[in-house]
Amino acid sequence: MLVLERLADVKIVAQGGYPEAECCRLSVGHPDALTSDPDIVSALSISGNFSFQPCSHGDFLGAILGTGIVRNKLGDILLQGEKGAHVLVVPELSDFILSALDKVGNVSVSCKKIPLLALEYEPPRTKSLKSVEASLRLDAVASAGFKVSRTKMASLISNGDVRVNWTTVIKSNTTIKTGDIISVSGEGRLKIGEINSTRKGKFAVELIRYL
């Protein structure tokens, strides 16, 4: 995303339906055209009586994919306990899911569209830590945040297992800034908080780890 913004006069908006969404869609356009966040995701409520037959994230995902749509058309699935789940999906498939999905596991369900503001989700649990780094390279900052060796992190990056702001990055020397979200396959997510320069010319970085 950063490359596009530097090479052209464009604005890039990532939207997943709620602030901490893992799956996001990108809108790319001229800043004058994207004056506000576009509605590029829709929310559905899947309801049923799950009191005696609880269903997992995988059950909901499997049921939705069983209708014939592909995974990259779906966003996050937010479980609502015995009530069901809220699901983010591309707008063009909302009506199809409403008509095609009638069961999750052995539980009969009904689906309806809901506004994004009606999504119910729990704020993620996080743990903050500080690290002093000689540079703001991705491999250095991420290795400190995920507590793995820099060599291992560099390997994960080159293998395509690391994303910055939902975009795969394969260069270890990518510069990180405040607000960036770093995701590592098998390790989780990390948000970059405040960055301050030290007297010795290094960087004191706040790392917010999602638990």
TrEMBL record:
Keyword terms, alphabetized: RNA-binding
Acetylation is among the record's keywords: no
Stretches assigned to the RNA-binding S4 domain: 136-196
InterPro entries reported in the protein's UniProt record: Nucleotide-bd_a/b_plait_sf, PSII_S4, RqcP2_RBD, S4_RNA-bd, S4_RNA-bd_sf
Recorded superkingdom: Eukaryota
GO molecular function: RNA binding
UniProt organism field: Nicotiana tabacum (Common tobacco)
CDD domains hit by this protein: S4
Protein name (database record): RNA-binding protein YlmH isoform X1
